Amino acid sequence: xxxxxxxxxxxxxxxxxxxxxxxxxxxxxxxxxxxxxxxxxxxxxxxxxxxxxxxxxxxxxxxxxxxxxxxxxxxxxxxxxxxxxxxxxxxxxxxxxxxxxxxxxxxxxxxxxxxxxxxxxxxxxxxxxxxxxxxxxxxxxxxxxxxxxxxxxxxxxxxxxxxxxxxxxxxxxxxxxxxxxxxxxxxxx
Length: 189
Description:
six-stranded antiparallel beta sheet
């Protein structure tokens, strides 16, 4: 069981004591919170995650959506406003002792700036520096990854891609002039 860390939607911001709604699209997964706190664990399974750990989740856990009639519905994970059932494959990382740890099979990669003067892309495609990884596999390494394997997350104000470890295709040697590409990003979760 997991509860949202702040709220189910990350499309809200408080300014001068008033709530500003940044997103009116229920369907957009980017405005769904993906940060929760573990409230209970299953009795029958073992996991490195503990009650009270923060977790990074799949966007469908806390998501609300509209059905074919236009009625707003909760995800299949919904139990009540403060509790959601979460399957093990919906958790990508957990926070322990102020440090994020990835669950088996995943890593989070920081994009790097594109140095090609003739490219319109601001970041190097399919390449980045591993920030968090399961068992520190590739941690701080410059890696390449397969197309369509990256999934964007905001972790503590930093834009990272969640990449399955089996989608890492190459480990590069640092040239010494790599620069992280992480524009300011105010979304949370």
